[in-house]
Amino acid sequence: MDIRNWSMDQILQLPDHLLSRRYVVSAALDLGADETAWDISELGLPDMAIVHEMFIFAGGAFGKSMRIRLALGDQLPTITAEMDRLEPLFMGLGYQGPEPRTIQVSVLSPFRMNRLRMFVPAQGRRLILEGVTAVGDIIGVIAGIVVSGVPTEVPDCLL
Question: What confidence tens digit (pLDDT) does each residue in 5-28 have?
Fold first, then answer.
C-alpha cells in the first residue's frame, strides 16, 4: 500500500516493524582540561528521518562532568558562534537559554531517551556534538541517535 500521501501523524502510528531499517548516527570527543571541541557524525540522516532513541555516555575520572550541545549541520564548527547558528536536534532539551541548549553530562551517569518516534526533516544533515570541559577535567563523551527513514509503502497484509 502506498502511504506517501499519509500525514506524518498517521505514519508515526504504524507498528515498529513497518518503519524503515534503523541505524546509529554518533559523534565522539576526548577533551582535555578547559577545552572546547566539536565532532560531526560520519553518517548523514535521511532526508525525512524518524529518531527512535538518543544516548549520551561519558567516561573519565569519577565526579568529572562536561557540557555538551547537539545540533544538525553540514560542516564541522570551528568556533562557538558557528555552533550557535545551527538547528538544535532536540528543541528545549537542556538548560534554559538559546538553542541549541546545553546539557550537563557526568561520568557514570549515562543519559538515554527511548521510544521517541520523533520526526526530523534532516535533509541529509549530520549530527554535530560540541563539548566543553572545566579546568582540571579530562573526559570523553559519545552521543548518538538511532534513526530510520520514513517509509513510503507498507504491505497490505500487515495493516
Answer: 999 999 999 998 888 899 999 999
Q: d(Cα 53, Cα 66) in Å, to the nearest integer?
A: 21
Place of cell 549530520: 126
d(CA 109, CA 55): 11
Percent of the chain with pLDDT over 70: 99
Q: What's the Rg (C-alpha) of the chain?
A: 17
Q: DSSP H helical segments within the chain, as ranges?
A: 8-12, 80-84
Tell me if residue 107 falls in helix, strand or coil: coil
Strand-pair partners of 30: 140
Residue type for position 152: T
Q: How far apart are CA 147 and CA 20, in angstroms?
A: 9
d(Cα 22, Cα 144) in Å, to the nearest integer? 13
Per the structure block, which three cell numbers stand in for 13? 502510528
Phi, psi of 102 (to 5 degrees): -85, 135
The closest of 60, 59, 67, 56 to 133, measured between CA atoms, is: 67
Q: List beta partners, residue 15.
A: none
Rounded alpha-carbon distances, angstroms, from residue 100 to 20, 77, 86, 153 = 28, 13, 7, 34
